[in-house]
Design goal:
Strand content: under 5%
Order of helices and strands: HHEEEHHHHHHHHHHHHHHH
Low-confidence stretches: 101-105
Structural class: mainly alpha
Helix content: 40-55%
Radius of gyration: 22 Å
Oligomer: single chain
Number of helices: 17
Strand order of the largest sheet: 1-2-3
């Protein structure tokens, strides 16, 4: 920006640092590739979501602000760019397979794949008038697979509350969690969904791919590691001592720290703000970890805290993550369909030089 008092121009420190990093890398392909794929420069254009200034935005709207009152269905309309109420049809379509009652979420992917079926040329995927409702049916099917119920036209959070026996406050907390998990830019599962969609595969296939990527311990599967660590704290007479011993061994604490939120994950803050006042003991060791490591809770820890606070079934933290994020996977699949190109990056080859 021009300086009004001189002929100089001023630049943001962030822009200067980014330019310095680019100059340092130069044109070395390996360094350029690494910097792009490891929390670096954007590799795809998208108008769905972004993280800016420590906050998450869905098409320019603050996700935390939306989570105060919006339902997942309304956020789906926003992300899928369809009129309010159009994202989910008035009636729920039955599943093509069978879902057992009271199923856990460890095999959510397998149950969803078995309970649904379509192909890339299914009529609803090619009909603009039916596309949004069909996308909503995918989310309803995933809901049924998580809860062990039949697809229902009720709001997703209300279905969860009914299946898990939650009161109004519990249902509202689940609603907020689903909204906060709806999308997170080009995370690993959403990038996977986009790659699948770019091949011309069905939106159902994109959701299945997203579920597969989410299950990894470096992504949504981190909730299982947090649960195990939390069990250790619950069994200890002095949780603070366990934390110190854990950190003194050079181990990281699952559920803390996020590269995009150095000052703390706004999604986790929103969830924990409703939980920790009712669970002061949890707040004690969480604050201790922050003080000792400088890392703040992330959304994974917020989801585990929610599960434990509400007494939900084991695996429900992952299930809620997947259920909310399915809306984002579908949004990325729809957006990618508007690009005729296949996502097919080249590799920076580091193997033996071919002989000719």
């Amino acid at each position: 920006m021009p300086d009004p008092h001189s002929r100089e121009s001023r630049y943001s420190a962030e822009a200067v640092e980014r330019l310095a990093e680019q100059r340092a890398r130069g044109r070395r392909p390996r360094e350029v590739a690494r910097s792009a794929l490891n929390w670096g420069a954007p590799v795809l254009s998208s108008s769905i979501a972004t993280v800016a200034g420590g906050y998450l935005y869905y098409r320019g709207e603050d996700a935390v602000a939306l989570a105060r009152s919006a339902v997942l269905e309304a956020v789906a309309s926003l992300l899928w760019q369809v009129p309010a109420g159009a994202a989910f049809g008035g009636t729920a379509q039955p599943l093509s397979g069978v879902v057992t009652r009271d199923a856990g979420s460890d095999d959510l992917l397998a149950r969803f794949a078995a309970a649904t079926g379509d192909d890339a040329t299914a009529s609803w995927q090619l009909d603009p008038a039916r596309l949004a409702a069909g996308c909503g049916d995918l989310v309803r099917a995933l809901t049924a697979c998580l809860l062990g119920t039949r697809p229902d036209a009720a709001p997703v959070h209300a279905q969860c509350a009914a299946a898990w026996g939650l009161d109004e406050a519990g249902a509202d907390l689940v609603r907020a969690a689903l909204v906060l998990c709806a999308d997170h830019e080009l995370n690993a599962s959403s990038f996977t969904a986009r790659c699948i969609a770019s091949t011309g595969a069905s939106l159902r296939a994109a959701v299945i791919g997203g579920l597969a990527a989410l299950s990894g311990p470096k992504h949504g599967g981190t909730t299982a590691r947090i649960e195990a660590f939390w069990d250790t704290l619950d069994a200890a007479p002095r949780p603070e001592a366990v934390v110190r011993q854990h950190l003194s061994g050079g181990q990281s604490v699952p559920g803390f720290g996020h590269a995009l939120y150095p000052e703390g994950d706004a999604r986790a803050r929103a969830l924990l703000a409703a939980i920790l006042p009712l669970r002061p003991a949890w707040g004690g060791w969480i604050r201790q970890i922050v003080a000792l490591t400088g890392q703040h809770p992330n959304v994974d820890l917020g989801l585990v805290a929610l599960r434990r606070h509400l007494g939900l079934p084991a695996g429900a933290a992952f299930g809620l993550f997947a259920l909310g994020r399915s809306v984002g996977w579908i949004a990325h699949g729809l957006e990618q369909r508007g690009d005729p190109h296949l996502i097919r990056p080249r590799a920076v080859y580091t193997g033996q030089v071919p002989a000719r």
